[in-house]
Amino acid sequence: MIRASSYRTARTACAAPAAPTGGAHRFWGRGCGIGPVITSVSCAALTASALCLGTAGRADAVTFDVPSGQSVDLHEVLLDETTGELWVRFRFLAPQIARDLAVISYEQAAPDMDHLCQTLALTYLQQHQLAPARVVISLSDRAVPFGQADSAATQFFESYRPEGDNCIWEAF
Q1: How many whole angstroms separate alpha carbon 164 and alpha carbon 8?
Q2: Do the strands 72-80 and 87-93 form a parallel or antiparallel pair, or are they unpaired?
Q3: CA atoms of 159 and 88, how far apart (whole Å)
Q4: How is the chain split into domains, by residue range?
Q5: Known InterPro entries for this protein (predicted)?
Q6: What pLDDT, in 10s, does the model give residues 112-167?
Q7: What is the DSSP secondary structure assignment for residue 25, as one 8-state letter?
Q8: pLDDT, average across residues 87-114
Q9: Predicted local distance difference test score (pLDDT) of residue 62
Q10: What does the DSSP 8-state code read for residue 30?
Q11: pLDDT of residue 8
């Protein structure tokens, strides 16, 4: 089980952190930037100079180009310290990996995760001056709250060690 105090949503390059869907955690009231927010945020814009997170389900969500050609949207970025060291988790929605569609297999999606770590995660880490022990890239066919199981969801995960300008794959 993941304790609420052990992870938080990542800060943004914007003037203020984005309000998560439904507002901040109930113990700290509604709003943003108050304590460890544990609900999801999504990507609203990615440019060469800034990554700005917005509210889940926005019409202007950015779709990333990946080697498989599937549609991949950034759902949330989490800073997780449950292991005693910082892990940055990039959670993407990738509807084409759904079991019932069988369009994109794990073998096709694995290079997508490598690509997202190399092109998106490393840039984000540099922009936000983060030095995590691990970067986790996950693809899910639907939004699943972090730390909760959903037997109907298809999810793929890969872990990387950021080293300079490279993401080094690390087996879980």
Answers
A1: 25
A2: antiparallel
A3: 10
A4: 9-170
A5: DUF6497
A6: 999 999 999 999 999 999 999 999 999 999 999 998 999 999 999 999 999 999 99
A7: -
A8: 95
A9: 75
A10: S
A11: 53
Question: Cα–Cα distance between 36 and 142 in angstroms, integer?
Answer: 24
Cα 106 to its chain centre, rounded Å, is: 18
Helix (H, G, I), strand (E, B) or coil at 67: coil
**3, pLDDT greater than 90:** no
Q: Is 149 exposed, middle or buried (0-12, 13-18, 19+ CB in 10 A)?
A: exposed
Could you tell me which of 93, 29, 33 has the C-alpha nearest to residue 58? 93
Q: Is 3.10.310 the CATH number for 9-170? A: yes
One-letter amino acid at 158 equals: E
Contacts of 129 (CB under 8 A, 6+ apart): none
Alpha helices by DSSP H, the chain: 106-116, 122-127
CA 10 → CA 40, 86, 152, 153, 164, distances in Å? Answer: 10, 12, 27, 24, 21
Residues whose CB falls within 8 Å of the CB of residue 61, separated by 6 or more in sequence, listed in order? 42, 43, 44, 54, 73, 74
Closest listed residue to residue 134, CA positions, set 122, 148, 119, 152: 122
The CB-side HSE value for 102 (13 A sphere, CA atoms) comes to 1
Q: What does the alpha-carbon distance between residue 13 and residue 77 come to, in Å, rounded to a whole number?
A: 13
